[in-house]
What does this fold into?
Amino acid sequence: MRRAIVMDLPAEPVSDFYGYDRGAPVDRLYIDAFLARHANRIHGHVAEIKDNTYARRFAAGHLSGVTVIDIDPNNPEATLIADLCQPLSLPAGTFDCIICTQTLQFLTEPATALDNMRNALRPGGTLLLAAPALSRISCGAPDSDLWRVTPSGLKHLLTHWPGPVTVTGHGNLATCLAFLTGYAAGELPSEKLTAPDDPRFPLLSCAAATLFTH
Ligand SMILES: C[S@@+](CC[C@H](N)C(=O)[O-])C[C@H]1O[C@@H](n2cnc3c(N)ncnc32)[C@H](O)[C@@H]1O
It folds into this structure.
């Protein structure tokens, strides 16, 4: 008979909603830090998926407009109903920045969606993308939750991007375990949140991909 060595692994999360019912989810801290680092790219005409929260919060320059994109026709905040995976569903050469957070995992054709967003950027525009490298299955749309992407996978998807691309992975073993278990960021010792990213345990993959100006 095998002897149980680890007795205290939880069978159930403490939160069934990413920790939202306890505070700010751990992945959102990493997304905030990523967008704050690239805030100088958020200006002019910005597109964001689902709502305009991050554009309004992080824009470092003047916002001339925010287009909220969603495939969901029932989203009252959406100003452009479009499937990112449908080529040319977005207006060409329109946006100075596209903020695409926590959406890639729902896209049936991620590479096509990246091409589509690239086509919708103005020269010099930037795609700021964050996607889970690790997460529980979506609470809201479990059957549509298709993928997790590692930093290397994201780099691979952006191999042919015509301009400078920076891909980063964020997280460490403690924040991965805390996020999966449903603890909010505020419940973790601050040294776990501020610890250097451990490339063995990314929680979030991020890319800042800028188009050449010509
Ligand atoms: C979990 S939300 C993430 C967006 C939000 N800004 C955030 O950071 O949490 C995912 C959104 O992507 C939308 N979505 C899923 N598939 C899509 C597609 N193919 N084209 C456009 N939007 C899509 C969903 O309807 C939903 O509003």
